[in-house]
Amino acid sequence: MVGNQEETTWRGPGRDVDRFRIQRPVSRRPGYNRNFHLQQRQVTLRVIPDWAKDHDLVFRLNNLPVSTRTWDIFRNFSEYGNIVYIEIFEGRDGARDGSAKIKFCPPPHTAFWESLNSLGIFPLKDKDGVTTRNCRVEMLLNKRRGRLEVTSPIKKHIKYSSHMKLIPTEIHFGIMENPETMMTMQVIHATPGDETSLEMNLIKHQLVATFVVDFVDPRSTGDTTYVSESRISKYNRRNKYKFQIPFSYLKNVHCIDIDEYRTAFLISLEYPPQFYRKQVDLRGSHTDENCTWTEMDSWYRSTDIVYDPYPLEYKILALHKEKPVIDIGRWTTYKFVLDKRQNSGPTYWEIRNALQDFNIETITLDKLNMVLPRKAEVWSLIDLHHSHTAAAEYSSLDGDVRSTTLPFSVRYQLEVCISREILNEYNLTREFIVKLADIASDDPAKAQFILEYVAELNKRIYEPMSIFDDVEALAYSPKSEIPPYCAYARKATITPTTIYFNSPTVEITNRVLRHYAHENSQGRFLRVQFTDELAEGGINASADRKCNDELYTRVYRTLFNGIRIGDRHYKFLAFGNSQFRENGAYFYCETPHVSCNHIRAWMGNFSHISVVAKYAARLGQCFSTTRAINGLSKPDIVKIDDIERDGFCFTDGVGKISPFLAQMITVDLGLRVKTAPSAFQFRLGGCKGVLAVSTDAKDKEVHIRRSQQKFTAIYNGLEIIRWSRFSLATLNRQTITILSSLGVPDEVFLKMLTEQLSSYQSAMSDNALAQSLLVKYIDDNQMTINIATMINNGFMTENEPFVLSLLHLWRSWSIKLLKEKAKIIVENGAFLLGVVDETATLRGHVTPSVAPGEECKADELPQIFVQVPSKHDPNQYNVIEGICLVGRNPSLHPGDLRVVQAVNVEALHHLRDVVVFPQKGERDIPSMCSGGDLDGDDFFVIWDKDLQPPEWNPEPMNCLPPKPVQLGRAVEVTDTMKFFVRFMKNDALPTIAHAHLALSDRLEKSVKDPKCLELAALHSRAVDYMKTGQAAQLPKRLRPTQWPHFMEKKHKRDDQKYKSTKILGQLYDKVESVNFIPQYEKPFDKRILRAYPLEDSMLKTVRQTKSQYDTAMRRILAQYEINTEFEVWSTFVLSRPRVGSDYKVQEEMARISEALKDRFRQVCIEKAGGKDFAKLGPFVAGMYKVTKEELDIAIAECRTTKIVAGVEIPKRRMEPRFMPLISFPWLFEKELGRIATGVESTGELEEMLPTLSLKAAIRKRASGVESEIKDFIEFEDGHTVHRGELLDLFRRDDDDIEHISEDSDFGEARSVADYRDREDYMQGENGETVLKTEFTLQHAPSHLHGGTGVEEVVPRIELDGLIDLSEPHHITPNVAVERHFTNALTSDIHDIGTRRIADSDPKNRFSGSSFEDLALLDGDSYANISLKEGESIEVEEVELEVPKSALEKLQELMAS
């Protein structure tokens, strides 16, 4: 009788392969023994104890030696079951107290504690099995008995097991060739005992797939295209892997019934999940210092699954990977085949039901086509052949293989589409590439634009040839004129497993990109950012764990080896200071004339710097986003002294600028202000900091202090980063906590919050209140003033959709900040740039006559000067007088907030929107505010009496940074790479800040508790890590064990969270988040629609321009992962950045948004025929009309339905990503206001400087391109420096150059002792001083000697699970996929005859330990032979007839 007949059809290229399996009944199988089977059917009943039914079991250990390590506990108890958690307890003093906790999950398989005596004495043994001490074991009863259950989120009466597991017989890795067909690239077959599983974890909301890979050398199976310098089969091994799929990754799961006995889950992901490899030697996952160990510490993150990972150390990173066993970054479709006879039916259906309840649809497929893997021919078609194999070189002579050269711009854009899975390489045919190349040969820009159009669609295209039939794609032209201070930038995001490229976007340039504008226009600069997998965010620091080391190794490999795109090799150049915090850097593709070293040499003279952190910061100074002041010719430089006293610098980073130059800069930047700003953050050669307007500076003078010159560099004119502007002060969690601990009542904060929330709600329907709030609650970028102007022009009354959307966004953004950061606006306060009192009028800080914390006499308080706009009229300025609170973010120490006295000084009335600090006193005020200075720091000033604390001016923290680590030699670029990676691994700043916030809420003394004071000091050290290279390490005793609910630690257990009743918890509970919903269905303003008769030809031009604008806007949305155009336009960004702070996002978005607006304003003015209102007005009205027409069509589609799979759904969803963009006409908000009201707005820019001409400021060539002004600067001694020459303001002898650098960084660069003898440092392999680690620095394999230096940053993790080939061992690989590369047998065997190694020849005498180094044949073949003295080995070789290799054939062919 024939049992089940299984039939699965695999469609290969041009053939069908049918596979059948015949299954006999058990009784007819060979070797059947009836008696044996009858015995197997006997059932043994046993009572299962209650503890065995629990999900886990926890024990407490007492009387442990204080030297006990987690490994000691694991080694003694692991035989009883699976240990998932170990914790060794410490006392308040941080010393171990001799007790610990250990958790088994599932419970132990034997009740080992029952065999102990009544006291629970357990003998602890050392590694040799000798009892060293007896400890006591106590089982802690589980509060929740039985299985752990999770309640369904939608059916409260249904409970699911927290962990449900299925056992797949196969796991397929591959891609979807089309919606109905999967191409399997690799199959893992489960074998008995290998723990292959698919588990649903409802506690963590994820699926976890576990599998085992048996690695077999491809060369041992005849694959001659595989290249490795190791001996054959040296790295054969067995490793266990797992990957975790969060529910947030899943939209649906497909279910397929293969046959009567088998079913399958099909999961296709947009982004790869996180992969982990299980350590075979678990000792390596424990460290002696860590008091905790979790099972996850034994799972190491994986970036590649390859046979031999060591060549990756020198491999240039590219999108296409050669010969992976599993390409975990690109093969993101998974098929889990389940045998119904091996899996519980109820569990299967329980998993399906749970998925549905957690909003993951399970869809049953009638059929899934499977195709065999094949080579993606696109790479062989477009790559120049740089193959390292002889076979590949030989095959390239074949006429069937022909490379197609694509222009770089086209090749790059193609990789954008492939990297983002819009085009899959297995769908790209020769026909497609040839067609694309033909278009590129005629018009490269057109080919690039076609691919950019595809990228903008952001959806998978399964038939790439259809692109060439798309009329919109062929007509797509996104390019337009961009402002002179902007340039197109390309970006690559490097994740642990793959690369993502971005379409070129417009960004504000920096000094380097401006100087090398030609190279940048050719795409030779590449912005690179390192993140975790795209859906995960940034790579978290893990200084005390090894499990993430492979991620840091990949980062270092990329920095060291570079990135390949087509025939271009991008190498690490440097990184900007803001980039550094966001794990970003610049890469550059060298030309024969301009290399990375050339660029770094041009940036400045850094040869005297021996501190890596400082060297990196100086390079980064040149990458600050700046606006070059082109109209400024021949500024006069005056050198002035710093004001220093008692080791403190009162003028650190601040200089002076004349009022005339300030006005010229204002005109050149095109600022829409009535008066020139009072201060500018700037760059000038190697100088940086702030220039404050001063009457001491005459005409075109710029006064520079020594503290402002950081290095000598080529003079390229004055560059402006930002300028002083007013915004309201805000409280946050840190400042509220400090003020509360200093005595400010909770009711004050609750009242402020309640009033603010009520105002936001009322403002949505009250025009006057909305306008009033917007004028009062001015944001950092002053966008609220723009919205208030729109309301004043009647757009809120008319329910205009864009304006109402901005208003609703402003409310949602403000309430979000209240909920997440307790960001309460202080109406009687300001957030201002800091400068110094050059008149020496203000009273400085002196030691008060009262004890710290007590209220001082008014005449003992230090003084400041503040002049800000009136709350009721932004054009009127008021001088603040009275008691104020001044501080700087972040503030963690109670002494960071200083009580001062604001006074009215007539001589300072020319300074607005800045806070002026005294130059007198015992210590400068900025350094007392969280270690601030005046080189660009912002300070909040609060004069609200309710917020004045009873306790004044506690002792400030000593913010002197630790001495920086010196190399003792000049810094090299590899040192910078190591510092970059070391910073990623060790940066504890976010962790310390979170710990401080949690403990300050939990501890009775709050920020005054010694633990919080120590954390504040650690935080200061962590902030200075970028300057000193010294990391701050967070000790375990300062790590919170419980977290307040307002910190939203969702991943923590319930017993690790508590409901806070302090002020931050109260504020959090009072705020309900408000989702932002764009107001698409509101009517457009008829005042504008009816203003002009509009011609069709003009509307056509408008539509084309809007298409270009929409493309540019969507690229910004994609690059910065922002949901709506309203957020970009207003800078009220709701989404959190992948890496970096929210504050930086607002600052960066302000620059990006203004550049976008400026760019398309110029385009529209040109299309309209000029900016004269008679011409521009109708064009702007046309912009408004075209936008309305597009939105009307979209709304109509939203209200119309269609039938899909029998379900009626809307044709278009009314969500931002499906709706047309409507911000285009609001590039001209003032012009729209004039059209709507008929009232002409004042020309603020023209009125401000009637004597200055913009034409005189910027000279242009006939072509319209800005000419390079041949300007120079002149010193008071008559010395001049022209543009392009070295600028060294404080010139000294060469012998004194180090002294210059040290003096110019006051408080940063001091005399540095040698750190090599310090206990927390050690010497790396290359002589570099590095942080000491207890991990052993492993050496590279012999064929990789020379090294990249990565071991000094991340200790090497050697392969484990290796199979000893000297022992008889048979591997049945569970990797069973038909290889799709044609293998040609090649062998390089040299005829070396017969050779005898005799003891008479000293060169041939080897000990057993060194004989493995002998390079005969494979050499390693004799690694296990030990020779006694006097013995010798005779090696006999025989000649084999081996076919000629491809290389030999190629050589013969070339010779002939």
Could you walk me through the main structural features you see in this protein, from its secondary elements to its overall organization?
- A hairpin with a 5-residue loop joins strand 4 (83-90) and strand 5 (96-104).
- The chain contains 37 helices and 58 strands.
- The protein is of the alpha+beta class and 1456 residues long.
- The strands form 13 sheets. It has a nine-stranded mixed β-sheet with strand order 2-1-23-12-11-21-17-16-22.
Helix content: 25-40%
Oligomeric form of this entry?
single chain
Radius of gyration: 35 Å
The tally of helices reads 37
Total E-strand runs:
58
Supply the helix-strand structural class: alpha+beta
Distance between the termini: 66 Å
Q: Quick one: overall form?
A: globular
Give the neighbour order of strands across the main sheet. 2-1-23-12-11-21-17-16-22
Kindly estimate the percentage of residues that lie in beta strands according to DSSP.
Answer: 15-25%
Mean pLDDT: 82
Show unreliable segments. 1-24, 386-401, 1242-1269, 1292-1346, 1376-1440
Report the sheet with the most strands, covering strand number, pairing sense and barrel closure. Answer: 9 strands, mixed
Could you provide a short overview of the structure?
The protein is of the alpha+beta class and 1456 residues long.
